[in-house]
Amino acid sequence: MPEYKIMLDAGHGGADPGAVYEGRQEKDDNLRLMLAVGKILSENGIDVVYTRTTDVYQTPFEKAMLANQSGANFFISFHRNSSPRANQYDGVEILLYDKRGIKFEMAENILGAMGEVGFREIGIEERPGLVVLRRTKMPALLLEIGFINSDIDNQLFDEKFDEIAEGIANAILGTLEENEIEGPTYYRVQTGIFRNKENADRMLYQLTDKGYPAFLIYQDGLYKVQVGAFLQLGNAVNMEQRLRDDGYSTLIVTK
Cα 171 vs. chain centroid, distance in angstroms? Predict the structure, then answer.
């Protein structure tokens, strides 16, 4: 397996306890589980960095900034859910910016692992408005590991804590191994889709004249103009911003 750097984040902290139930504070559960998962990942050759390892508060923007400055390949934030009434809901949910690329595959694997531990699998939801998912340049996941005001979930969290940490870590490692076998994910910036090749060629020539590494592919009966092929999502995001500043409509796609 190639070298990977993963930033782990324990949600909330300091004066922000997160959700609270009968004296139990989300920030403490988040930190404990994050550190346990990080230990397993480190023992398996992953370069693990953390937003926090003590009880301190950071804004979501600070967390995203730390992740972007770290050069990490992935950002994974640990949380616990809560509901308006105690024991109203239970289960594990994973939040993503969108359901594309390796992060979605990793989310599916983590969710399945939590189902095997005994949690109800709520599912995977797109939440593009969350700062730690929107502002991070690398693939990012936010894990809601059970409801803190669910007695069922708290019992699972406490009695099967080691299994939960191992399940999350093994799902992450398994996803990385599978993608190494299948080949890396490339991020491309798509700038146009045409039925008429002449229109696609016109945009292609325009982009190449401006110095963009543009190319044309034919897929599903359509001509697609794309720019670049990046291993790092952050590089694709930078290219996307350049194109938007230049007046193009864009969409990041994966290969």
Answer: 13
Q: What is the pLDDT of residues 9-30, one digit of tens each?
A: 999 999 999 999 999 999 999 9
Count other C-beta atoms under 10 Å from residue 88's C-beta: 11
Minimal CA–CA distance to 227: which of 138, 237, 219? 237
Q: Please spell the DSSP secondary structure of 149-205, one letter per residue.
A: T-HHHHHHHHHTHHHHHHHHHHHHHHHHHHHHHH----EEEEEEEESSHHHHHHHHH
| Helix orientation angle between 161-182 and 26-43, rounded to the nearest 10 degrees | 50
Q: Which DSSP string do the residues of 90-143 spell out, in sequence order? A: --EEEEES-S-HHHHHHHHHHHHHHHHHT--EEEEEE-TT-HHHHS-SS-EEEE
pLDDT tens per residue, range 140-197? 999 999 999 999 999 999 999 999 999 999 999 999 988 764 556 678 899 989 988 8
Q: What is the mean pLDDT of the chain?
A: 92
The answer to whether the CB of 133 falls within 8 A of the CB of 96 is: yes
From 127, 7, 5, select the one nearest 63 (Cα to Cα).
7
166 vs 160: CA distance, rounded Å = 10
Instruction: List, in order, residues 6 or more apart from 62 with CB less than 8 Å away.
Output: 51
pTM of the model: 0.73
Please give the single-letter amino acid code of residue 205.
Y
Kindly report, residue by residue over 56-86, the tens digit of the pLDDT. 999 999 999 999 899 899 999 999 999 999 9
